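As a next step, we paired sequence with C-alpha cells, yielding the entry below.
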Amino acid sequence: MTLKTIWLLLFVVLIATPALARDIVLDDPIDDEEYDVPDKPKWQEGEIQVPDSINSGDLQEFQVAANESVFRYYVERNSIQHDSDGAVRFTLVIRSSSGAANSSYEGFRCRERLYKVYAYGGSERLTPMPGGEWEPIPKDESTDYRATLYDDLLCNLQIGEPNPIEKAIEAMRNNRKVGRD
C-alpha cells in the first residue's frame, strides 16, 4: 500500500466516522415518546401569614462570618416554619451597634437558592410588602446574612430541603453550622 493510499483511507475514516456516528445517534428507531419524562410541576407558593409583631424575648443571635461587629443578627425562634410548599420562612432582626433595629419576614426556597421578603419593620412590628419577588441568594456569606442563614443554618444543601428547626437553632446558639460539631 502506498503512502498516498494510506492518507486517502485515513482521510475517509476521519471524515466518514463522525457523519456515521451522527446518523446513528439521531436516527433512534425507538419511539421517543415512550421514554419522555413528565415535566416537573411548576412550584406553587402556599398561603403566607405575615406576623404583625416581633417577640424580642424569642430572638436567637447568629454570627455572619466576617461581621465587623457593627451589626448583630437574630432570628425569632418561634417564627421559623417549614411550609407545605417546601419553603422555610422566618422573622429576622438586625440591630446596629447604636441599638437601631430593622426586621423582616423572609422565606427561602432551599432547592433553588432563592429568597423573598414578605414584610419589613422595626424592633416591634412588621408591615407586609405585597408583590415581592423571589431573588437569588448571594453566595458570599462573609458579608451577607442571607448566605449564612442559607448555607450554614436553615437549608440542607445536599438535598435542597430545610434543616430541622431544632438543629438550626442549636447551631445558631453554638455558633456552628448545622451538621458540624
Notes: Residues 3-26 form the longest helix (24 residues).
